[in-house]
Specification:
Elements (H helix, E strand, L loop, with lengths): L6 H6 L4 H9 L12 H14 L4 H10 L4 H4 L7 H10 L3 H17 L13 E11 L8 E3 L2 E11 L4 E9 L18 E4 L6 H9 L3 E5 L6 E7 L7 E9 L4 H4 L4 E7 L6 E6 L6 H9 L2 H13 L10 H24 L6 H10 L7 H4 L22
Parallel strand pairs: 1-5, 5-6
Antiparallel strand pairs: 1-3, 2-3, 3-4, 6-10, 7-8, 8-9, 9-10
Length: 389
């Protein structure tokens, strides 16, 4: 990254200009704003994500206060609330969805050598969804409940990172399990899910794609045991069985054998029952795989705490999805920055340091190399002591 460039510009340099324009050109505006380009929009909204801006007025005020630096930031258009509101309303959010895809591929290449679970060489993905509550009167299009609106973010993250491999944004009423219809399953990979995704017809699609799943079983599942294997109960395992579904509906949806593993969590004392179509892994590793699903909960917690996706700068569907996808781009750019600069830092700390140094011209890696003076003993030899009186 170029020394002498603003920290903001060093981050933006992660994105290739040609790739950016290729993404934007796929979805041209019916009536483009001549004074405010797609790049201007993205840079202003990225600035808002990186510096925790509260509103369009806040974005406008902060950027106008640094008007002499806008050109160095790459912003060529006139920064105003009306321009931002117009482009967020009119420019298709899918342009930034495409950009997030470009960044995802770049981030996954950088993190591809990392392994979250040592016993597994294949890719491991965790699936889940998270609700973002909205006001019914302001967001009537985001249907959820009678008195409440919401959008739902469906995500699949690669645990080597964790980097989102798939994200979809829908109305809140869309059930989590529908995400299984939108995913192209990778042969040999593991997909770890909570029992909200338990649909045997869809699980059979994963099995047909020669991928593996690990999922919580429901207590009312109807099955019979074909084979039982001995387990070491000191590890928390209680059963490792080959089972077959015999429910009136389910046996026709999944006609192959399933592996059923019962496990007692030592921390909570709760008994968990898992289903998987993999018969080669040790039962303890399957339990470990499911425990790794917690990483996607941490992912949702991170983006909600560190990025602007719980309150929005516009109320239309396009404005909301634009903001969410640019937030996803910001997350991916911070993750890429962590690797390309060799920081090996917590992503939250990177974002915190960047946010207060956004207009600095120091190379980013130097921001994390400055001496920490908190524990340095201060020489007080010239100060008067109370007992000197």
């Amino acid at each position: 990254m170029n020394s002498g460039s603003l920290v903001f510009s060093q981050i933006v340099d992660i994105i290739d200009r040609k790739q950016f324009h290729r993404c934007v050109s796929k979805y041209p505006m019916p009536r483009a704003s001549r004074s405010f380009s797609a790049r201007d929009q993205f840079l202003c909204m990225l600035f808002a994500q990186l510096t925790y801006r509260e509103s369009l007025r806040d974005i406008e005020a902060c950027l106008r206060s640094q008007a002499q630096l806008l050109y160095a930031m790459g912003i060529r258009g006139a920064v105003s609330r009306s321009n931002l509101a117009y482009v967020n309303e009119k420019r298709d959010w899918r342009a930034f969805f495409e950009l997030a895809g470009v960044l995802t591929r770049k981030a996954r290449r950088l993190y591809s050598q990392e392994r979250y679970i040592e016993e597994i060489d294949q890719a491991v993905y965790a699936l889940d969804a998270s609700i973002v509550d909205l006001c019914m009167s302001l967001f009537p299009w985001a249907k959820f409940r009678r008195s409440k609106s919401a959008v739902k973010i469906h995500a699949v993250i690669d645990l080597a990172g964790p980097i989102p491999a798939f994200i979809a944004v829908t109305e809140g009423k869309i059930h989590d399990v529908n995400a299984l219809d939108w995913i192209a399953f990778e042969a040999g990979a593991f997909y770890v899910m909570d029992r909200g995704y338990l649909d045997f017809g869809r699980l059979f699609r994963i099995d047909s794609a020669r991928a593996y799943f690990v999922i919580r079983a429901k207590s009312n599942m109807s099955f019979y045991v074909k084979e039982s294997r001995t387990v070491d109960k000191s590890t928390g395992l209680r059963a490792d069985q080959t089972v077959r579904l015999n429910g009136a509906r389910t046996k026709g949806l999944y006609g192959s054998n399933l592996r059923r593993i019962s496990y007692v969590d030592a921390q909570t004392g709760k008994t968990l029952v898992f289903l998987t179509n993999n018969f080669d892994l040790e039962a303890a590793v399957v339990a470990k795989l499911y425990k790794a699903r917690w990483q996607i909960e941490l992912f949702f917690k991170w983006i909600k705490q560190n990025l602007r996706i719980k309150s929005f700068y516009g109320t239309s569907e396009n404005a909301v999805k634009t903001q969410i996808w640019i937030a996803v781009c910001a997350y991916l750019m911070v993750a890429i920055l962590n690797k390309t600069t060799g920081l090996d830092e917590n992503l939250s700390r990177i974002l915190q340091v960047v946010s207060v140094n956004i207009f600095s011209k120091d190379p980013i890696h130097q921001l994390f190399m400055k001496d920490d003076t908190r524990n340095i003993e201060i020489d007080n030899s010239n100060q008067l002591m109370f007992n000197d009186f």
